[in-house]
């Protein structure tokens, strides 16, 4: 039993009580304040209940309200992540920002969690935002949900991509057939966003690519990835009856040379004796610079205030 289960219960209790007692002097109205304080102190708060695919809108809205009451309506850069189950998403986020998302084998993250990170004051001017909101999601195509996961994966992906200013698409290895699934979901979600004039961007991360030095091979891989994305975009555009989309770069700004990162194995050998691979840390560092660079460019136009994020969650 983790604290997230308790928080989920509290959220549900809050929603029910708010329906029944609309007056403003009840004790339960202080519940969002507690969650907001936990969130500000750096605890991940559940944004989407993974077991029921349900977003407790009133609760999330109330928590966001309290957060902006406590901090002021600050600017947020939303970074979200998508990938197949057990492809190392939470591990990557933890390595990037020193977070504490739970990591384990199998399906450990369910639904979507958000965590607030304060940007140091010396950099807020330069970057153009005060906080990063990191959204960690459960793995797509979970074997536990075999058969009924397709629709729900599409919903999760649309939700997460629509929410994020920048989405990391996490792919394990470089096998294109495994990517097929993910890319289809991603392209569909980006097309939907295009329809409602939201323009997120994305970076691809290939984890566990053994020989990082073989530049020409990864060049070939990049070319194949781009080809795949273009095919997907064309198919998805056909399904959504879009005539002016033929390539992936018609859907969002995408450059195959700068928006794709290759990661070394995290472990060199076999634990318990293996040291973590230093290459992984270098890769993480590069990715972090890439994220901040994108954030800087993006932010001039599309960075949201806390209140905007709340509305965007409701819209999605």
From TrEMBL:
<dbReference type="InterPro" id="IPR027417">
    <property type="entry name" value="P-loop_NTPase"/>
</dbReference>
<dbReference type="GO" id="GO:0005525">
    <property type="term" value="F:GTP binding"/>
</dbReference>
<dbReference type="Pfam" id="PF25683">
    <property type="entry name" value="URGCP_GTPase"/>
</dbReference>
<feature type="domain" description="VLIG-type G">
    <location>
        <begin position="73"/>
        <end position="314"/>
    </location>
</feature>
<protein>
    <submittedName>
        <fullName>GVIN1 GTPase</fullName>
    </submittedName>
</protein>
<dbReference type="InterPro" id="IPR030383">
    <property type="entry name" value="G_VLIG_dom"/>
</dbReference>
């Amino acid at each position: 039993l983790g604290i997230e289960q308790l928080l989920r219960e509290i959220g549900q209790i809050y929603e029910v009580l708010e329906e029944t007692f609309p007056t403003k002097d009840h004790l339960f109205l202080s519940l969002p304040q507690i969650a907001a304080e936990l969130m500000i102190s750096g605890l991940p708060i559940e944004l989407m209940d993974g077991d029921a695919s349900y977003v407790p809108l009133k609760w999330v809205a109330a928590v966001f309200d309290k957060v902006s009451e406590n901090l002021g309506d600050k600017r947020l850069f939303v970074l979200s992540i998508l990938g197949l189950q057990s492809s190392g998403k939470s591990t990557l986020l933890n390595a990037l920002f020193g977070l504490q998302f739970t990591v384990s084998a199998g399906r450990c993250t369910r639904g979507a969690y958000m965590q607030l990170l304060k940007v140091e004051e010396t950099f807020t001017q330069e970057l153009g935002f005060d906080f990063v909101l990191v959204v960690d999601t459960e793995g797509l195509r979970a074997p536990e949900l075999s058969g009924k996961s397709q629709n729900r994966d599409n919903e999760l992906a649309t939700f997460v991509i629509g929410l994020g200013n920048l989405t990391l698409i996490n792919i394990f290895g470089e096998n294109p057939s495994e990517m097929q699934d993910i890319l289809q979901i991603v392209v569909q979600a980006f097309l939907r966003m295009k329809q409602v004039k939201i323009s997120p961007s994305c970076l691809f991360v290939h984890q566990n690519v053994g020989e990082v030095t073989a530049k020409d091979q990864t060049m070939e891989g990049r070319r194949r990835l781009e080809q795949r994305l273009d095919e997907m975009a064309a198919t998805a555009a056909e399904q959504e009856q879009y005539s002016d989309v033929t390539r992936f770069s018609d859907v969002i700004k995408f450059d195959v040379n700068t928006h794709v990162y290759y990661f070394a194995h995290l472990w060199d050998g076999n634990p318990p004796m293996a040291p973590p691979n230093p290459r992984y840390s270098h890769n993480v560092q590069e990715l972090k610079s890439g994220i901040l660079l994108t954030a800087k460019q993006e932010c001039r136009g599309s960075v949201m205030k806390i209140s905007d994020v709340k509305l965007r969650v409701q819209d999605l």
